[in-house]
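=== RUN LOG ===
request id: a7f3
mode: sequence -> structure
chains: 1
length: 484
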Amino acid sequence: MSATIVIGHDPHGAAVEIDVGELLATRLLVQGNSGSGKSHLLRRLLEESAPLVQQVVIDPEGDFVTLAEEFGHVVIDGAAYAEAEIGKLAARIRKHRASVVLALDELEVDSQMKCAGQFLSALFDAPREEWYPALVVVDEAQMFAPAAAGEVSEEARRISLAAMTNLMCRGRKRGLAGVIATQRLAKLAKNVAAEASNFLMGRTFLDIDMARAADLLGMERRQAEAIRDLARGQFLGLGPAISRRPVAVNIGAVRTGSRAVVQSYAPPPVASAEELHALLHDNLAEPAREVVRPAPVRADPEELVERIAAADTPPPRRPELPAIDPAETEAALAAIFADMAAEEGCTFQPASTLFQDFTLRCRMRGLSVRGYDVVRFRRGFAMALAGIDDPADARWTGLLDLAAGVPDELLAPFLLIGRAAIEGRPCPDDAELAQVYGTSSPRRIQRLLDYLEKDGLLVVRTDFGGKRSVGLPHLGLATASVEA
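=== RESULT ===
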């Protein structure tokens, strides 16, 4: 499934879109000097994609906390929680799919790096069944993935850089799509920047940064001067989620604002030199009072968990759908599984994408999916791929009991072989097993059979005539022999 959002317009007024589905798979790098409009671009991206995908914002300046008012993001004050609590909150965020803003503006730089690193690592380490797609937006990424050691401690740099590297290099398979913004490419670790396939380059003045930006955009060095001439809020975009050729885009308007000071003219107060001198020196001899900084607001952990779990706005009241008989529900679910299994290339799609498709089809038919998580869905889908349309049929009882210990990714090929044995048919060939397994590699199928045989679930036998049969010793059954 794909969905597009309008990020802005080109100089001719045509809409420039970003394919969110493609963005989740290919990641995004935003670069521009201070004042070029990076934060405005990120805010536009977050606002437009908020209804489509879960969002996690690493916010070192507290600029994006206003998203909570308009879009229901949960704001987490990083200064209010201990290291272990930050990890637990991140784990619950993945589980409950809440959109959050991790505000780090109350922390020193060293603590910001440690907190962000621990938070990102906990997101990355979520169990497989919670690998739902999410945009992870990191503003001022050069702070969390520096190209060289700075004034921060080596421990903070190591924790933060490792987490950012995992996000950009390995996060895609876990559903985490990194969107990073930096003032200077030269300050950002190269192995972090290199993993992005989409680029939005804003105004920059240093020659080294212009040259790197031009290289990423596929422009000649003599064309790099155009990057210096970009106006505030204007970017050059390139990538599979944006455009196959560099395109200039003026970023569109946003609905929320930043808490930062508005940069505008503010004339000084009108007063004489004598009056100002008196104001500045009044009671100067008195001892200075200690400035007490307010402690960060720490929400009760249980209350915050409830807010994360209930982050989604409750839907408006609407007429209830007609009640469906349980037997009709099972038949309808079986039909949905069968339809999905019949689609070409379905097994090559990620489980999270298939599960979203499944829930959408269920809602379209008025079926409740509260009892279905990703694990239950994968097993139901594997049975449909194997042609087992009625799990309650007594023919499949022994096979399904035996399959309870088979890993989810191997379940469809195992059930397909088991069904052939029960029906006395030849074992499916490697091409058919590869189709339901979701691969085009024959070697993977051989490794699959080796794994199941070593686990004692199958016995593969090839007779002197070169005919192969597969037995299921626990059931006392075997497939018919066929040329291997």
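=== NOTES ===
The chain has two domains: 4-260+297-309, 326-483.
Residues 305 and 338 are 38 Å apart (CA to CA).
=== END ===
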